[in-house]
Every structure is written in C-alpha cells, then in structure tokens.
Specification:
This protein is mainly α. The chain has one domain. The chain is built from four helices and no strands. The longest helix has 28 residues.
C-alpha cells in the first residue's frame, strides 16, 4: 500500500511542477528568439528542482523513494511532451 501512496505522491508532485514549467515555457514562447532558445534550459532546471526535492525529502516522508522518484519523472515527462505539442501548435498559427 505504501508503494501506491508513493506513486500517487510522485505523480501529483511531478504534475504540479510540470504545469508550472509549462506555464513558464508558454510565457517564454511569446517572447523573442533568445527567450525561445532558453526555454529548454528553464524546463531542465524546473525538472531538476522537482527531482531534487524528492531526493532531499526521501528520509523525511514515509514513502518509497524509488517509486516516488520514477513517478515524478514520468509525470514531468508527460506534461512536458503535451505542453511542447500545444506550444508548437500555437506557434504554427
């Protein structure tokens, strides 16, 4: 049962940071070419912060570290892919 809670917590945490990153990326996509080229760096930094938070709280929370980390990474990836497709579709118009 603890694994289920760990996966759920990781998915929620990854989705939260993924949506924040997508929002930042969307705002940067409306800017100049220089801002557009730095979007990837910002997304990477946001992902590293989210995963580092999971790493540093591994002994504080009664969750399985591996399950939480993997599910966070999965949520970050899925939100990132969806956001990238949506931003690309908006930029085509």
């Amino acid at each position: 049962m603890i694994t289920v809670w760990s996966v759920a917590a990781g998915l929620v945490w990854g989705t939260l940071f993924g949506l924040i990153g997508a929002r930042v990326t969307k705002k940067m996509a409306k800017g100049s070419e220089r801002e557009i080229s730095s979007m990837s760096l910002v997304r990477t930094v946001m992902d590293v912060i989210a995963l580092a938070a999971v790493y540093f709280t591994r002994n504080l929370l009664p969750l399985r570290f591996e399950a939480t980390l993997v599910s966070t990474a999965v949520a970050l990836t899925l939100i990132g892919v969806v956001a990238a497709f949506r931003i690309a579709a908006q930029m085509k118009k």
